[in-house]
Amino acid sequence: MMNKLPVVFLWHMHQPEYRDPRDGVYQQPWTYLHALKDYVDMAAHLERWPEARAVVNFVPILLEQLEDYATQIARYRESGKSEGLRDAVLKSLADPGALVGEERSRALFALQRANRERMIDRFPTFDRLIDVAEALSATDAPGRYADDAFLGDLSTWYHLAWCGETLRQTHPLIASLEEQGGNFSAESRQALVELIGETIAGLFERYRTLAERGQVELSMTPYAHPIVPLLQDLRAGTESEPAAPQPEATDYPGGEDRALWHIEHGREVFRRLLRVEPAGCWPSEGAISDPTCRLLAQAGFDWMASGQQVLRNSLNHARQELHCQHRSYERPDQSIRLFFRDDGLSDRIGFDYQNWHADDAVGDLVHHLVSIADTCKHLEVDAPIVPIILDGENAWEHYPDNGFWLLDGLYKRLSDHPRLQMTTFSEYLSGQPSAVTLRALVAGSWVYGNLATWVGEAAKNRAWDRLVEAREAYLSAEEKGFWDDETARRNARQLAVCEGSDWFWWFDDDSPADAVRDFDRLFRLQLARLYELIEETPPEALDMPVCEPVPDDGREKTGGTMRRGQA
């Protein structure tokens, strides 16, 4: 390894809690759809190239939902009854006739949500069905005009389009259904539901096996994906954005304890489902601060990672100069090692290569890595490393064939490259490499190096104020001492869901109106349920939107599921 430049790919897998806290019905289908398309493909690419190495990071609340979907579908398979399926999109495939009223209309809208160029236009029959669905959606009661046969065919094609490319290439059922084209029988649709269930249920063992043979390092994020620096210090965002408006609340009560709860409970879930003790942590959104660094070190993690701009801000703050930033780092008197993503290379995969020929994209990335290797050798850099860190699920729908050719070509080239070595953070650290001591650590995240994505704008600040109010009510109820252990665990988990980062991510003018509306409603629903669980009346403020969506009037909006590391 000493003669090759270590390169670490960290793929981050994350979906927030989508279940209605009252009845467990999924409000969005993205967890199981990304499992079917992306989590399966990412495992298969590594299985195809045994010399490839990567870190795969899972959020525990995502793992719980995957387990729940696998359980739902297993029960459906045993009973043949769709009543137990708590996702309208999945139910539209199993039994479209079971959807009635508004649920039917919502399913019709949901079955149109896919990348038009890469996932709809690719299949002419699906494209025609979408045209009809769009025409029906323009009516006053679209669900009423979509009969069961149409809805069943539309849902079948929707799920076929969401199948991962490695699944499409290997499973005969998918090829058979695509060739048939339409008029799908209940038995065919049921078989596809069962394939989805088998695929999801098999993911845990596939990633465990990859970890056991050393190809994958499995790492985690705190349980419900909270922005830990803001739990610890609600004013942490001012370290990089001192003039940004702040919430009315000045702190998050008991935030340090809550951050530790997310770490400890997340680790319990992670160990139960993946049977691995995680050595590393990708903090939610790579958001770190000095208190966060200390907390993760005390929790026993060997390494953590963040964004390149956080490193630059920290070096600038301390007036600390480096000739090469491709190193590992540490803070004085702390055992945990810090890694910072190469924003340029990570964003090339996330955004730029989707419109390149795969061979050219692979060649370009390898060229940049070899150039870094040359620079490190010329500067005699001790123990260099290049971390490439990005979303492991949302980029691929913008690529032809779900990114198959890019990932296949990349793993093939890097598996036996004479100058580059695919590795993991723990494998790198096993060689006891030297580290650069950071004299300062400025709070920030992988997005622009600050925390402005989650605090500092009116709607985001308002959301924090609603959350702080709920937290204060929670503490008051807890002090009464009437909770048994089961009630305390239930309430703590519901609070954790409310503390997740995703609500704040979408609360701005640059996010699509539908997404703002959906996440605003679900955030207020989760908070209201928390009040109900602690036997308090939800405040009237939760009847009003936290963030009013700006209409999608044709202007380009920069918000969405992915963002670049640099502004």
Q: Total strand count, please?
A: 10
Q: Helix segment count? A: 23
Largest sheet: 5 strands, parallel
| Mean of residue pLDDT values | 96
Q: What is the end-to-end distance?
A: 34 Å
Radius of gyration (CA) equals 24 Å
How much of the polypeptide forms β-strand, as a percent range? 5-15%
3D shape: globular
Protein traits:
567 residues, alpha/beta
Task: Describe what this molecule looks like in 3D.
- The chain has 567 residues and is α/β, with parallel strands linked by helices.
- Among the domains are: 60-208, no CATH class; 458-543.
- It is built from 23 helices and 10 strands.
- Strands 1, 2, 3, 8 and 9 form a 5-stranded parallel sheet that branches.
- Strand 1, helix 1 (30-48) and strand 2 (54-58) form a beta-alpha-beta unit.
- The mean pLDDT is 96.
Topology (elements, then pairings):
Layout: E1 5-13, H1 30-48, E2 54-58, H2 60-79, H3 88-94, H4 101-110, H5 116-120, H6 124-137, H7 142-145, H8 148-161, H9 165-170, H10 172-180, H11 186-212, E3 216-220, H12 228-232, H13 255-274, E4 280-281, H14 290-298, E5 303-306, H15 308-317, E6 329-330, E7 337-340, H16 343-352, H17 358-378, E8 386-391, H18 404-415, E9 420-423, H19 425-429, E10 436-437, H20 458-479, H21 485-498, H22 502-506, H23 513-533
Parallel strand pairs: 1-2, 1-8, 1-9, 2-3, 4-5, 5-7, 6-10
Q: How would you briefly describe this protein structure?
A:
The chain has 567 residues and is of the alpha/beta class.
